[in-house]
Recover the amino acids of this structure.
């Protein structure tokens, strides 16, 4: 009987209750909640950011039964304060076109309304979005006796959607910074924060400079994605089935998987990871394909490379050198093109020189290399 592959499943509770394969990442959850307070994490699309936030939500809501048999269940067994239920505020910015006037404010208002129904009896907590956020945080803390947890999914989408519209992008950036500045001013009511995005949605000097950016941290290099050991541990039946369908050996099949979908480094010294969406689709379809690349071709980025007469050979010959500050650059009208290519998953770290310090970037694998160069062929030839 074929096992259930969690393609498109982003809810941790559904994944666990419905018997989908789960690659145990709860050791990272334990590290996050026990060694820090407020974080930011950047990862490319379809790398598991939403599932990570859903897992954190289940943890902070005290749903211990969902974690039975997982690593964190063992790690927390001697902690008397584990599995205490906290108020969890999840802000999800998916599913909205932020080119529409005031779309960002409307999205924030609708999510605040749900929280006000829960903690304020439906009453508005103030005249502005910031006042309402601050009020509902305080009331949730007072009602439950526990500090709040704030999780933000796709935090950069309101800014990325507005790219090419400078006034709207600046407006959305002001709304974002003003609203989430509450995270700093209301620290007494907040237990934990994790904000995710493809790019960083705030500038280091802004009201959110207290967030600990772990995007390049070695300890969290494999928090999203699938390592080589995890691939062998969790997907042996799927690898064997794929090898049989392709009329090849398991060793040759593993080599092909590595060549096509491995190669993502999110730290100078951390583990490399496979693209999880590619692996799941390959196992489901029982054939190799450009599954991740086809879900979001980089037409606009390729066009910008052509406009600046960029030597595309640098993308694959390991002569592209950048500083760490470029890799964690912020969303904005002047965001460096190489920064966007890295953050969107079209480039990865292949080498690091600590004397610089400088990172060497290149295509992570054959899927991205062939897909990207093919998409640029009609522009250059």
């Amino acid at each position: 009987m074929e096992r259930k592959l969690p393609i498109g499943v982003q809810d941790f509770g559904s994944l666990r209750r419905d018997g989908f394969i789960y690659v145990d990442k709860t050791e990272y959850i334990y590290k996050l909640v026990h060694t820090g307070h407020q974080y930011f994490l950047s990862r490319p699309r379809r790398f598991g950011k939403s599932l990570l936030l859903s897992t954190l939500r289940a943890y902070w809501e005290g749903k211990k039964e969902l974690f039975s048999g997982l690593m964190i269940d063992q790690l927390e067994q001697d902690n008397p304060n584990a599995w205490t239920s906290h108020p969890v505020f999840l802000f999800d910015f998916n599913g909205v076109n932020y080119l529409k006037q005031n779309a960002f404010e409307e999205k924030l208002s609708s999510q605040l309304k749900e929280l006000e129904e829960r903690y304020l009896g439906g009453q508005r907590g103030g005249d502005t979005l910031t006042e309402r956020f601050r009020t509902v945080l305080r009331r949730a803390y007072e009602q439950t006796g526990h500090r709040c947890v704030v999780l933000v999914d796709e935090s950069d989408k309101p800014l990325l959607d507005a790219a090419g519209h400078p006034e709207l992008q600046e407006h959305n950036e002001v709304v974002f910074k003003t609203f989430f500045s509450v995270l700093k001013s209301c620290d007494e009511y907040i237990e934990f924060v994790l904000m995710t995005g493809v790019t960083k949605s705030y500038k280091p000097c802004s009201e959110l400079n207290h967030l600990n950016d772990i995007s390049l941290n070695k300890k969290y290099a494999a928090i999203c994605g699938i390592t080589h050991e995890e691939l062998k541990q969790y997907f042996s039946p799927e690898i064997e089935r794929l090898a049989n369908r392709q009329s090849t050996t398991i060793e040759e099949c593993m080599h092909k998987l590595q060549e096509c979908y491995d190669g993502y480094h999110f730290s100078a010294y951390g583990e490399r990871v496979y693209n999880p969406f590619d692996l799941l689709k390959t196992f489901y379809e029982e054939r190799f394909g450009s599954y991740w690349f086809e879900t979001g071709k980089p037409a606009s980025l390729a066009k910008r490379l052509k406009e600046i007469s960029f030597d595309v050979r640098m993308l694959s010959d390991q002569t592209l050198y950048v500083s760490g500050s470029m890799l964690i650059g912020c969303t904005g009208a002047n965001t460096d093109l190489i920064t966007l290519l890295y953050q969107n998953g079209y480039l990865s770290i292949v080498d690091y020189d600590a004397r610089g310090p400088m990172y060497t970037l290149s295509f992570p694998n054959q899927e991205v290399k062939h897909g990207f160069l093919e998409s640029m062929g009609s522009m250059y030839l």
Observations:
- Strands lie at 38-42, 88-92, 148-153, 190-197, 212-213, 264-265, 272-273, 320-322, 348-353, 358-362.
- Residues 340 and 371 are 17 Å apart (CA to CA).
- The chain has three domains: 12-215, 228-293, 298-380.
